[in-house]
Structure to design on (547 residues):
């Protein structure tokens, strides 16, 4: 039976609860325990799949096809445990389940209320798979005191009472603001935030205090006293140069020890931290630097491409170089010349995206990379744009485009080299879609197998000819253009196992130009960089020696 750690936040949002949870998960693993991490989000969307990346950052996709919060990406990158559909839930999903049961008559005529019906639904969710791991870490999104978060706080309070004493603990993250005028770190917001928690019946066992400045011991003592927490359970969390320092930094500040103490686990097994020392060393002692352009649309919000940025960092770690990322807005050269914006980069990455805006710029970026022999990695939309570029500029299909843009504009302007996929095979059953389906959860989502062509660049990169990767797209390159494009040198080097769906394309006669229909970035880890990112950065390093 798992022990439960509930992670909440107070004072301000964006304190790094997700990172703290992920780092704690990694530390518990380092001490030999098995873990699973979960995110409970109070917003009313059923899942983040339909939210703009500007709103909520990247949508992280799990193997089993759930569109989830980007914190699940942190969890996977730090623990290596593949997240599941049942590791992410929102108020929207909880309420929709409750309402579905109500319509079915499952509640036998009762009045449906937040307590107990909504809270029970949340508690059932938290308990899924509780027998499988030693520790279940559940992070509650938002900040204590938010109106929409209340049912979640009430549910975790009840949950801890339903379990035997000592099986659940509460960890609360707060901020100690620094007032430069008086040169002081202030503890009052933390006290207030803990009071808010206590007023809803939750007494934190561990307090993690974010601070820009070192927290003097007497302040830690004061927090312990005023917040009713043991002194060794007030853990400072300072700003870090890299998120991958977090496990070592939290260990140094005693977070894992505090958590094990709170559970009364003694003696605690010693942690094995070699992996994290190696990660630290690779981040802090690079032997060179490469400059990579990410040519996208959501460039103002880096969280929109979180996993890509992380995967590039991992690729850099594998090659012992620092990857300097520059975000280039594709729309800027939609009409004009891309060269002035792209010259000087050692490699170009065009990430996934939705909608027509900026796509002409992305097509030009693919053209630039092809013609100038700059390493190119096209991910999902980035692959589709590379194919359209090849069709238009090499194969002479002048009006090549994607049906996605015609659907959006409500006209027929393009020859659909990329078309709306309406039938495919998942495992051993057929999936079908219509043009006017709901937007939520109807894409080709989750892990699918692909077969790589022996002798292709991509098979060499993977060191294998059978792979599985995570997908999230509605449109697909049309296989009927395969022969035309292959005759021009764009090889379809990876296909779905039934041979119907192009998964990977690559230019022969190019040092490194690969487009993939899936999202390899979602599976990269600092301690196990994804082969495509390792290879891409290696190609950037080789290119940097030429220029
Ligand atoms: N918009 C494209 C599609 O739906 C690409 C999606 C993506 O890049 N994730 O197929």
């Amino acid at each position: 039976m798992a022990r439960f750690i509930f992670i909440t936040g107070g004072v301000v949002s964006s304190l790094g609860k997700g990172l703290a949870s992920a780092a704690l998960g990694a530390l518990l693993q380092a001490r030999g325990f098995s873990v699973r991490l979960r995110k409970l989000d109070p917003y009313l969307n059923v899942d983040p799949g339909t939210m703009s990346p500007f709103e909520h950052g990247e949508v992280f996709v799990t193997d089993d096809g759930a569109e989830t919060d980007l914190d699940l990406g942190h969890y996977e990158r730090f623990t290596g445990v593949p997240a599941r559909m049942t590791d992410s839930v929102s108020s929207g999903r909880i309420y929709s389940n409750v309402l579905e049961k109500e319509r079915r008559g499952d509640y036998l005529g009762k009045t449906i209320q937040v307590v107990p019906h909504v809270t029970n639904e949340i508690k059932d969710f938290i308990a899924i798979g509780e027998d499988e791991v030693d520790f279940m870490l559940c992070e509650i999104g938002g900040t204590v005191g938010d109106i929409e978060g209340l049912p979640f706080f009430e549910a975790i309070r009840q949950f801890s009472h339903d379990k035997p004493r000592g099986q659940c603990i509460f960890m609360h993250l707060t901020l100690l603001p620094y007032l430069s005028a008086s040169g002081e770190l202030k503890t009052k917001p933390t006290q207030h935030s803990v009071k808010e928690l206590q007023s809803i019946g939750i007494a934190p066992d561990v307090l993690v205090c974010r601070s820009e400045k070192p927290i003097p011991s007497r302040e830690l003592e004061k927090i312990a006293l005023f917040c009713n927490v043991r002194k060794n359970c007030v853990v400072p969390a300072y700003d870090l140069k890299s998120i991958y320092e977090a496990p070592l930094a939290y260990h140094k500040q005693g977070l894992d020890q505090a958590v094990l103490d709170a559970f009364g686990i003694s003696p605690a097994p010693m942690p094995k931290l070699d992996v994290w020392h190696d990660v630290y060393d690779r981040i802090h002692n690079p032997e060179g630097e490469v400059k990579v352009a990410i040519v996208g649309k959501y460039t103002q919000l880096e969280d929109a491409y979180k996993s890509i940025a992380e995967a590039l960092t991992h690729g850099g770690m594998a090659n012992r170089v620092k990857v300097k990322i520059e975000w280039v807005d594709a729309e800027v050269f939609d009409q004009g010349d891309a060269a002035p914006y792209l010259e000087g980069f050692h490699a170009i990455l065009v990430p996934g995206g939705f909608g027509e805006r900026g796509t002409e710029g992305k097509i030009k970026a693919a053209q630039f990379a092809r013609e100038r022999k700059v390493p190119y990695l096209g991910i999902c939309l980035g692959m589709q744009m590379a194919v359209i570029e090849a069709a238009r500029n090499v194969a002479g299909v002048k009006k090549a485009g994607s049906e996605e843009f015609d659907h959006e504009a409500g006209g027929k302007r393009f020859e659909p080299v990329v078309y709306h996929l309406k039938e495919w095979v998942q495992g051993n059953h057929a999936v079908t879609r219509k043009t006017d389906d709901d937007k939520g959860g109807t894409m080709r989502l989750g892990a699918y197998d692909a077969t790589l062509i022996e002798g292709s660049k991509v098979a060499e990169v993977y060191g294998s000819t059978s792979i599985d990767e995570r997908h999230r797209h509605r449109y697909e390159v049309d296989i009927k253009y395969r022969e035309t494009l292959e005759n021009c040198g764009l090889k379809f080097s990876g296909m779905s196992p039934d041979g119907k769906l192009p998964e990977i394309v690559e230019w022969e006669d190019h040092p490194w130009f690969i487009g993939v229909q899936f999202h390899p970035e979602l599976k990269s880890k600092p301690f196990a960089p994804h082969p495509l990112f390792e290879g891409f950065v290696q190609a950037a390093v080789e290119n940097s020696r030429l220029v």
User: Anything to note?
Assistant: The pocket of glutamine is lined by residues 352-354, 380-381, 404, 472-475 (CB under 6 Å). The longest strand covers residues 444-452. The chain has a mean pLDDT of 94.
